[in-house]
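call fold target=ABC transporter ATPase
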Amino acid sequence: MNVLEVNHVNKHFGDKQVLHDLSFTVPEGAIFGFVGENGAGKTTTMKLILGLDTIDAGTINLFGQPVHYGETATNQAVGYLPDVPEYYNYMTAAEYLRFCGRLTAMAPDELKTRIPEMLSLVGLPNNKHRIRGFSRGMKQRLGIAQALLNRPKLLICDEPTSALDPAGRSEFLTLLASLKTQTTIIFSTHILADVERVADRVGILHHGQLQVNDTLAAIKAQYAVNQIVLSFETEAQAKQAATLIQGKQNAQRVVVTYHDDYTETANAVLSQLLANQLVPVAMDRSEPSLEDIFLEVIA
C-alpha cells in the first residue's frame, strides 16, 4: 500500500518552473530519502504534500485521499518537522507538547501519558528547563516529539540535519532509524551520506524532475561503478600507472573502474604494474557511495 502518491505535478513561481511533471510513490513503512541539490524543489514538494501551497497541475494523494491547498484533512495523520523549528522559548518541553496536543484536539488524559512517552523516546528530560536553553540538537529532538505526538501515519522531515554538528547529526539519524517500525518517513536532504545511512528507498530530484526512485539496493545495482583505488609514492609514478592501466589520476592516487570479478581485475592490474616496476603503496576496493551515484545520475 502506498501512503503517498504524487502524480504529474507541476509548480511555477512566476516564470520559473520549479517542478516538472513530478511523479513518485512512497510505500507504507518506508524511510524515503528525498535528495537533491539546494534549490532542486525538495521543500516546495514538501509544502505541496502538506497542502501549504497550490499545485499548478497534477494531483497528490495521501492515504488515498486528495490533497487540497488550505483544506487538507489528511494532515491530521501527518507529522512535520521543518528544517528550522520555531518554539515559544519560555515554555518547557512538556508545556510545548501539551500546547501542540491541545491544538490537535488530543484528550487531556491521553496527553498525560503521551508527553512523557515522547520525551523519553527522543531522549529529552521531563523537567522545568526552558526551551531557550536547548541546543540545536535538543530542539530537533523536541521537533520530532511534537511531530510524533498524535501518532501520525506519515512523518515528513525537511532538511532536519543541515545545521547540526556531526555528533548531533549522528544522534538524530539514530533516532530517525528507530522510528521505522512506528511510521512511514519522508526525509528530505542534500546530505547524501545521511540518506545512505537510514533510508531504504531513495528519490533523486534534479531541476524539478525525479531522475530516480527505487530501493537503495536497486539503485546501487543499476548505477554503481566498482572501483579500485591505488596509491603511489610520487605523482610521477601515479601518472605512469594511470597511462598503463587506463585509470584516472588524482595526485598520487589512481582510480580504475571495473565491471568483472574483483579478484581477476586486481590480479591483472597488479601484474601490469609489477611488469613495469611500478609498486603501489596501497590498493583498496572502493564501494560506490550514494554521492557517486547522485553525481552520475545528474550528469
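return ok
The chain has a mean pLDDT of 91. The chain has ten helices and 14 strands.
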